[in-house]
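Hi R.,

Here's the chain you asked about this morning:
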Amino acid sequence: MLYYTTWLVSRMDPIKYIFEKPALTGKIARWQVLLSEFDILFVARKAIKGQAIADYLADYPSEQLELMDSEFPDEDVMTVDEDNHGRWKLYFDGAANAVGSGIGAVLVSPKGQQTPIAVKLGFDCTNNMTEYEACIVGLQAALEFGAYELEVFGDSLLIVSQTNGEWQARDPKLIPYQRYISRLVPKFKYVTFTYTPRAHNHFADALATLASLIKLVEGDDVRPLRIETRDIPAYCVCIEECMNVEVEIDNKPWYYDIKRFIQDREYPSRATENEKKYIRRMAFQFFLSGEILYKRTHDATLLRCVDAEEANQLIQEMHAGLMGAHANGPFLARKIMRAGYYWLTMERDCIRHVQTCHKCQMYQNSKNAPPQYLHTMASPWPFSAWGMDVIGAITPKASNGHEFILVAIDYFTKWVEACSFKNVTQVAVTRFVKNNIICRYGMPEMLITDNASNLNNRMMDQLCQQFKIQHHNSAPYRPKMNGAVEAANKNVKKILSKMTETYKDWHEHLPYALCAYRTSVRTSVGATPYSLVYGMEAVLPVEVEIPSLRILSQTQLEEAEWAQARYEQLNFIDEKRLAALCHGQLYQRRIERAYNKKARPRTFQPGDLVLKKRNMALSDPRGKFAPSYEGPYVVKKAFSGGAIILADMDGEEFRSPINSDSVIKYHV
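And the predicted structure, written out as tokens:
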């Protein structure tokens, strides 16, 4: 490819067609493909004098090429000053406190433009001295701006009265200030000093207070202060449909320069050589018919070029119009292109529009990939942490009327305690904790439950406070946070379903189901819960009917020998528990690695807009047409473990946190 541009001057129509006709066939089409790799610009010959100049330059080439100098020697002769006609206003105030002293002034132009001035004073001074300093700095700034007609306002009656000559300055510290102001006043054509209440001088007062409180170190670069106003809280975002296509800043369509070049052979002002070359190559791909510009495609199809407003209308109609399918972004872009329209950023604009479409976000498929890596929990010693949950209501009811099972599991040994109830009331729960956990295995350190009202009430709080037990709740509708007790519930139900015969005697088989669970090896600890609690395996009924080697060896021992063997077994129980702890940690690591492979981390920050997964258990009158998510909501707080606290758009917080896998980001 040539590194320079070739200007081809000719009056031959075939050459003109090669470079300007949108669709060609035959040999001319092949010529067009071969010439397209060169930067050739066709120019029609206008008059014979142009040919004469070209012949002269060809016969007498010049070796010293110089660019035309575009500088004008008198371009800076005429300058226009800012129109300063009208009276300016000056507000000043000073502040002195234990931290330091500062002054503030606000210069207001006749057009209402405000210029704030804040100065930190590095010397000790009184309040009246700071007022004089602020007034003098404001007057000096007014002279620099050329404001010779000035109205000065201050909230210090002493300074205003002394400056107007009504009062006489008696303080030796203030006399030099008054004399200096008297020398500045004659420099103005018109100046007045007026007292104003502090309520009308709040801007200058705020600047003076700010300057007095801050501490500046030499070398600090403090940029101008910018103050914005907001009418709503930061977490409340006004959700409106936004323009998906970028609005033209200069009110010109994106193809303005291309159309102008094809139509008039003119380049944009201040365009560089590379930009001109790019415009020429871009113009080769477009065709102008009247005032409408078309884009040539590879199959010789012409696509009409549209501006931002038309593109936005096309996107909205194609996506959510009368026959809109709410398709994804790339599909929507191809659909618009098949309809015969084109603009440069159509695919990006379509993707962004679909991403911010409210209905597309509400009805999108649920994301099953975990948003956070797995956080495992381990118990340091037996019976220190218990998880508790309720199974039921069970149908059919048992013969004694029971239809609920209250289950508790120790996180270290996987030991399970369970009882059946007609109704799991708060009295039944507290009695179960006292009798089946505290009185049998001692004080637990932690108790984990879900958010059910029978497990979270005043009686439960009083019990935990009495015995110094930490009561934690899992996130709503997230059973994985109390996974050990959920797994125990599943296993107990599975064992009971295989033991029962009439399905109304399950309450009678519950103790046997618990015994079967306790004497089975748990994969997570590599041992039976019974052996981790008592240091030996339980004697099963079948071992009595058909004596095992263990039973035969123990029956031949004397009582003292049996007691000694039992003591030796108890001495090894700590070793078994330590081995179970190591086994459990390795098991958790394997689970964690497998879980983290499926994780797709998503982070949420306070102030983010999110959609919450809808609870399918709640009835919805829309039935099959109910959305997958509800909202939007605002993230009020975000924690490192994946829990977040939401608030509605009015700022009211939810009572309990939820896990981040139940929410997705909402785009506006």
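Confidence is low (pLDDT under 50) at residues 72-84, 235-248.

Let me know if you need anything else.
M.
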